[in-house]
Design goal:
The structure holds three protein chains of three kinds. Among the domains of chain A are: 141 residues, no CATH class; 105 residues, Orthogonal Bundle (Cytochrome Bc1 Complex, Chain D, domain 2), CATH 1.10.760.10. Helix content of chain A is 36%, strand content 8%. Chain A starts with 30 loop residues before the first helix and ends in a 5-residue tail after the last helix. Chain B has three domains: 197 residues, Aldehyde oxidase/xanthine dehydrogenase, molybdopterin binding domain (Aldehyde Oxidoreductase, domain 4, 2-Layer Sandwich); 156 residues, 2-Layer Sandwich (Aldehyde Oxidoreductase, domain 4); 328 residues, Aldehyde oxidase/xanthine dehydrogenase, molybdopterin binding domain (Aldehyde Oxidoreductase, domain 4, 2-Layer Sandwich). Chain B has 17 helices and 29 strands. The radius of gyration of chain B is 27 Å and the shape is globular. The two termini of chain B are 36 Å apart. In chain B, 59% of the residues are buried. In chain C, helix 2 packs across helix 3. In chain C, strand 3 and strand 4 form a beta hairpin. Chain C has a five-stranded mixed β-sheet, sandwiched between helices. Chains in contact: A-B, A-C, B-C. The complex binds FE2/S2 (inorganic) cluster (FES) (2 copies). Chain C: GO terms for molecular function: 2 iron, 2 sulfur cluster binding; metal ion binding; oxidoreductase activity.
């Protein structure tokens, strides 16, 4: 991948913005508040907001490998730049079928096949909520897609190959909460879009669902119930805590896109809904993956790595302010990295390099927790030394990254 | 700092003011040189006289009013020592005040404090002591000479004893003696002996009040953002969201900055983040680092100012046995003092108070008068401890900014720049290119040297009158013209280039730190070219300069110069005469990898003339070296689209404890010469000594700062030029 | 209203839970011994103790602390023997220069010495390298910490 599509949207400096509240939202309230809940559950804001731009005004860049760059549209109620003139039915068709007014087929960056889990009424509730928000006249840049993807009609073909959208009635063989979890995970949550590998036509792989995938320089983790490769060894509590706060002790913290998902979506879901998602996730058949060499995560000791290795020295200076010498997190549990398998474990260290070079931001109930991007001041070789020390010291990983990998991560590509 | 402002100390007129039982010795200094810095203690009495140095109360409280501001250099301690030495009291018993702004150009900077205060402060102490002796002699009807001043008491010939406080009122009525005897060095009881710093206790207790700590009843706190591009201004501002933040009370605006005011700083920061500001960035939005270096490269040829010369260096080079030339490059540098920029101000219709840390109290007061329209004497500046100066607080634009915001509100306003603001809106040590060319004899020694400096003249903006008639900035002579070496023929040229998009300023030395890196690097190159040991090469060059020779030999001996080292290790030397002090520095470095530099040991020999407080000289050299190493290895300010790209300590890297030298040994050479400056000498030595050590390990040159810059890697474009 | 235990006293503060402890100490409670240097846990000048561990108060939202944890600042260690030994060691060899970083350095050193009474240079550097000093007092900080250990008669 040549460009971090979502990296473009990542804010690398220090943020002082804070979310006002973590209000509790009933699962099935009516009207606009239901719409707000669903809008959050569907994580609309992150993709439809340019970094630093007005919420839902679009303009966030998405590089689609081999295809080019597309920009999310403005979905505020502005009548020119936004969707103010759309009818409810047009909105529903766009969200659930990927067809927008004028029969333009939406590119698959819009997860409409997942959103089809939502009923037309639910989608209309989202629309109703969006209509209550401030409008923006911002117009996103034109897409820069390569032929043949530049022809929107090509998406008709894509839809044929990758299956039509459909509704998904509850499975009576499972509990209501499992069904609710499936709805949230497969539907508005559109988890598979990142966590499932893509087929050759860029569709989400069903046979290998949730076995992990590369997304914009990151490795989206295997979230099947595999004990070694997936989340099978996580307790239900840990998983729920991770989803709703972005952190679980012994598992590290959500960063990158997952950090965004927690910040703007999952942390607003009710505990009941989170538990439902956990129940469903833990039932996903185990699949093995090649992304994370199994980790032997034990307590780091001085004996693991000499304190005078260059990486250890840099860590002792630049990192301990938040992460402490033992990786346990100093002032904020979010900074505890010990056992952070998703970050430390990806076999090629790519997630760690992404965090180091692009930083990470997580919205929490007590404000923004940020990790700064080490894009200056420390050389690529310095960053590689830090990464190698951290992976070995805290995860017993023998992965080695190089200055070249760091430079690639800065540019947004995956190390080989 | 520029050496131009080092005036010969002289006391033109003294007088004594009596009243309120206090005996106030005032030393009025010549116009243009008197200085002061505001009060550290707030209860100065009505009898307080400007430029007074010593106040003795009938209650035996002795107060010293200090002309230089304390920013870590230990100047309070050494100033008190000078006066206490002559007055005959225990320095630890003295109360300290910082003097308020007086008349004339006043600065604390340029490593000049010890040099300029050496005589006046001793004379102040001696004058007070003489008058106390005279007062006692009058009481006891004996000769003043028979009265001995010691430990705060005058003892008479018959063993009578009166405290200074008991004699203060009498002494205050006496005429001020014209010439007072000063102690000879042999009589010194304090000067030259280590003394504990007087400001340590409050600082370890967390009780010292720095500017940022000032708390004035009713004050509000402002978070500031200036246009990220120099020369730009505020466009549209939408204050709605900011004003909704709990605790935010106002959004203030001046042409190039906004300030969100709140009950406490965090609320102000949140307000600032919520504030929607559109900047009109202006033409500098196109400036990037490359543009700055391109401009400098343009100055390498073409016309230049002839700054200094003797003999015909060009001829000497043309006819020399050998020729050698090199181009050195140094970056823009920030200060990043540990205490971020801040200022508290209360502007009222009838007056104004300012609480801040500044190296230029009077300038700060004067521009505040301009901004507020108040007369100067209605503006009181209360100087606070400075959490690191390094030349940053020779600028006072933050005081001016505070005044422009402060005049819009009725309450006392404290502005705090975030660290990000402090670095990105700093005024930077300039970038320079230096081109040197030497003609060499058969043995490889210099027959003629030409040196062209391309860069800005910092003094031109800071103090336009300081610029020479031909447009030269004398400060650039430190480390170049002012050097331990003499060359048979010499030519220094200056091609002035003022960079776009940044404001350049002083640092912990400008001339000295930039000049020494270039000259000492070049000399080292010449030594290695001639296959002569770098110490031996320099020894030959300074054989007629005994002070330089002495420090060089001492540093070489103490460092074990020439003894074998483990693999990947090397030593480098730098020799200097700067700020009135001689210094030789040997750095021993280990480089396990090209990007991994470990300073094993630093050995310094220093001759800074008469030493006041030896341990603080050592402390200044230790700290100065580490400040210099930090910059030499890591630091460079870069711009993209007119915006500074470094903003906090992960992008502006500062040397940490585990990267600092394992050992620094400073050897003081006894000297009776008048005191030289010391605050910047270590910093100036750091880059050249380290670069030369790294060059010794890697067998290659380091001509670009920062030393870890990719441009210094073996594939970099800098190749040795040999002619 | 949040309740905090600071230097042995229970205090109530009325701030948003995202407010870093640093600004509560400095601007709400007027305790300015704890300094601001970077705001993002990179310099250590804001170091205080929470339940005895050194933390960066600039990055600790008060909402995370709770009413039970014991917060100690540079102002709150007047009677502590380790703190007294550290201060004495600092004064003995004149560690401070500008002094701005020193409250943070001292808080970090006290926490280290309480954890490891006789630290090796490696242990000193592991715990102290997160604290920046722009004046470059590192050599003396290292020496002062060693001196505390020596003065306390801890066997190496
Ligand atoms: S201010 Fe907290 S670590 Fe720098
Ligand atoms: S003493 Fe000045 S920053 Fe440490």
């Amino acid at each position: 991948m040549t460009m971090t599509e979502r990296g473009l949207g990542r804010i690398t400096g220090m943020l002082f913005t804070l979310l006002a509240s973590t209000g509790i939202h009933p699962a099935h309230a009516a009207g606009a508040s239901d719409g707000q809940y669903l809008t959050r559950a569907a994580d609309c804001e992150v993709c439809h907001t340019r970094p630093g731009g007005a919420p839902f005004a679009g303009g966030r860049a998405f590089a689609i490998p081999g295809m080019g760059v597309i920009y999310s549209p403005n979905i505020t109620a502005d009548r020119q730049a936004g969707i103010g003139t759309w009818t409810d039915d047009q909105f529903v068709k766009a969200v659930r079928d990927g067809v927008s007014p004028g029969w333009k087929h939406l590119y698959p960056a819009m997860p409409y096949r997942d959103y089809a889990y939502m009923t037309p009424d639910e989608v209309k509730a989202i629309r109703a909520y969006l209509a209550t928000l401030p409008t923006s006249s911002a117009r996103p840049p034109a897409n820069t897609l390569k032929f043949p993807f530049s022809i929107r009609a090509a998406m008709i073909f894509w839809n044929l190959v990758n299956g039509p959208t459909s509704s998904h009635p509850d499975d009576p063989g499972h509990t209501p909460s499992w069904n609710r979890g499936r709805y949230l995970v497969e539907g508005p949550g559109h988890c598979a879009e990142c966590h499932s590998p893509r087929t050759i036509t860029m569709g989400v792989s069903a046979s290998n669902a949730y076995a992990g995938a590369d997304v914009g320089g990151w490795r989206a983790y295997n979230i099947t119930s595999s004990k070694t490769d997936g989340i099978g060894a996580w307790s239900a509590d840990d998983l729920a805590t991770y989803l709703s706060t972005g952190h679980a002790d012994g598992h590290g913290s959500a960063s990158g896109d997952m950090g965004d998902v927690v910040s703007h979506s999952l942390r607003y879901l009710t505990r009941q809904d989170i538990d439902a998602m956990v129940e469903y996730l833990r039932g996903i058949p185990a699949r093995s993956s090649t992304d994370g060499a199994p980790l032997v995560v034990d307590q780091p000791t001085a004996a693991h790595d000499p304190a005078d290795s260059h990486g250890a020295m840099l860590y002792a200076g630049a990192c301990v302010g938040c992460h402490l010498p033992d990786g346990s997190g100093r002032q904020n549990p979010v900074a505890s990295i010990a056992g952070a398998r998703t970050t430390l474990g990806a076999a090629n260290g790519q997630n760690l390099l992404q965090v180091l070079t692009h930083g990470s931001v997580l919205q929490t109930a007590t404000g923004t927790a940020s990790m700064p991007a080490f894009h200056g001041g420390y050389s690529d070789q310095d960053v590689a030394d830090i990464a190698n020390f951290v992976m070995h010291h805290f995860a017993r990983s023998s992965t080695k990254v190089t200055a070249v990998d760091v430079a690639k991560a800065k540019a947004g590509s995956t190390p080989e | 700092m520029t050496p131009k402002r080092v005036f010969p100390p002289a006391i033109r007129r003294r007088h004594v003011l009596g009243g309120a039982g206090a005996f106030v010795l005032a030393a009025i200094l010549p116009a243009g040189r008197s200085r002061g810095a505001g009060m550290l203690v707030e209860d100065a009495t009505a009898s307080f006289a400007p430029n007074a140095y010593i106040r003795i109360g009938s209650d035996n409280v002795i107060t010293m009013i200090l002309p230089n501001i304390e920013m870590g250099q230990g100047i309070y301690t050494s100033s008190v020592m000078l006066m206490a030495e002559e007055l005959g009291i225990d320095p630890q018993s003295v109360r300290i005040e910082a003097a308020p702004p007086g008349g004339g150009a006043e600065i604390t900077g340029g490593s000049t404090s010890s040099m300029t205060e050496w005589m006046p402060l001793r004379q102040a102490g001696a004058t007070a002591r003489t008058m106390l002796q005279q007062a006692a002699a009058a009481r006891w009807s004996c000769a003043p000479d028979a009265c001995v001043a010691l430990d705060g008491y005058i003892t008479g010939p018959a063993g009578q004893r009166l405290s200074y406080g008991e004699l203060a009122a009498d002494a205050a009525k006496l005429p001020v003696p014209k010439n007072v005897a000063l102690k000879t060095p042999a009589q010194f009881r304090l000067i030259g002996r280590p003394m504990h710093r007087l400001d340590s206790q409050v600082k370890v207790d967390g009780q010292a009040t720095f500017g940022i700590d000032v708390q004035v009843p009713g004050q509000k706190v402002g978070a500031v953002a200036a246009c990220p591009v120099i020369g730009g201004h505020v466009g549209h501002v939408d204050t709605q969201a900011a004003l909704k933040i709990r605790g935010v009370v106002a959004v203030l605006q001046i042409d190039d900055a906004v300030c969100v005011v709140a009950d406490h700083y965090w609320a102000a920061r949140k307000g600032l983040a919520a504030l929607d500001v559109q900047w009109v960035e202006g033409p500098n939005a196109a400036v990037d680092t490359q543009a700055i270096y391109r401009q400098l490269e343009g100055g390498l040829s073409g016309p230049a100012i002839l700054a200094d010369h003797h003999g015909d260096a060009r001829q000497a080079i043309t006819h020399a046995h050998g020729r050698y030339s090199a181009i050195y490059r140094q970056p823009l540098l920030a200060h990043a003092t540990m205490e971020p920029i801040n200022c508290t101000i209360h502007v009222r219709p009838d007056g104004c108070d300012i609480w801040t840390g500044t190296q230029v109290a009077e300038r700060a007061r004067d521009t505040t008068a301009e901004v507020t329209g108040l007369p100067k004497d209605k503006i009181k500046l209360h100087s606070q401890y400075i959490g690191g100066g390094f030349g940053r607080r020779l600028e006072h634009e933050y005081v001016t900014q505070a005044a422009r915001f402060g005049r819009q509100v009725s309450y006392p306003l404290k502005i705090i720049w975030s660290r990000e603001e402090d670095i990105t809106r700093d005024r930077f040590r300039p970038a320079y290119l230096d081109h040197l060319e030497a003609g060499l004899d058969e043995r490889g020694y210099i027959t003629g040297l030409t040196h062209r400096i391309v860069g800005p003249a910092v003094v031109a903006r800071w103090e336009p009158s300081g610029l020479s008639a031909n447009g030269y900035d004398d400060d650039l002579s430190v480390g170049t013209v002012i050097t331990p070496y003499t060359y048979p023929a010499y030519r220094l040229e200056f091609a002035r280039r003022e960079p776009p998009g940044v404001i350049t300023a002083w640092w912990r030395g400008v001339g000295g730190t930039r000049g020494l890196f270039v000259v000492e690097g070049f000399i080292d190159e010449l030594a290695r070219r001639a296959d002569i040991d770098p110490v031996a090469y320099r020894r030959e060059m300074v054989r007629n300069n005994p002070r330089a020779l002495a420090v060089l030999e001492r540093a070489a001996r103490e460092s074990g110069w020439g003894t074998p080292l483990p693999p990947n290790c090397g030593r480098g030397v730098a020799l200097q005469f700067a700020f009135g002090s001689y210094l030789a520095t040997v750095v021993e470095v280990e480089m396990p990898a090209l990007h991994d530099v470990r300073i094993r040991r630093v050995t310094c020999a220093v001759d800074c003339g008469q030493v006041i407080n030896p341990d603080q000289i050592i402390a200044q050299i230790e700290g100065g070296l580490i400040f210099g190493f930090s910059a030499a290895l890591y630091n460079e300010i870069t711009l993209e689209k007119g915006r500074v790209q470094q903003d906090n300590f992960h992008t502006w890297r500062v040397m940490r404890m585990n990267e600092a030298p394992k050992r620094i040994d400073v050897h003081l050479i006894e000297s009776t010469e008048s005191p030289g400056g010391i605050g910047e000498t270590g910093t100036a030595a750091a880059a050249p000594a380290l670069a030369n050590a790294m060059a010794a390990v890697q067998k290659r040159r380091y001509r670009i700062l920062p030393l870890l810059s990719a441009l210094n890697q073996p594939s970099g474009h800098e190749k040795e030029q040999q002619g | 209203m949040l309740t905090l235990q600071i230097n042995g006293k229970s205090v109530e503060v009325d701030v948003d839970p995202d407010t870093p402890l640093l600004w509560v100490l400095r601007d709400v409670l007027g305790m300015t011994g704890t300094k601001y240097g970077c705001g993002i846990a990179e310099c250590g000048v804001c170091t205080v103790h929470v339940d005895g561990s050194p933390v960066r108060s600039c990055s600790l939202p008060v909402g995370l602390i709770g009413s039970q944890k014991v917060i100690t600042t540079i102002e709150g260690l007047q009677a502590d023997p380790v703190a007294a030994a550290v201060r004495k060691a600092w004064l003995d060899i004149d560690v401070v220069q500008c002094g701005y970083c020193q409250p943070g350095q001292i808080m970090a050193a006290i926490a280290l010495l309480k954890k490891i009474p006789n630290p090796t240079d490696e242990q000193i550097e592991a715990d102290m390298s997160g604290n920046l000093c722009r004046c470059g007092t590192y050599m003396r900080i290292r020496a002062a910490i060693r001196n505390v250990a020596a003065a306390q008669g801890v066997n190496p």
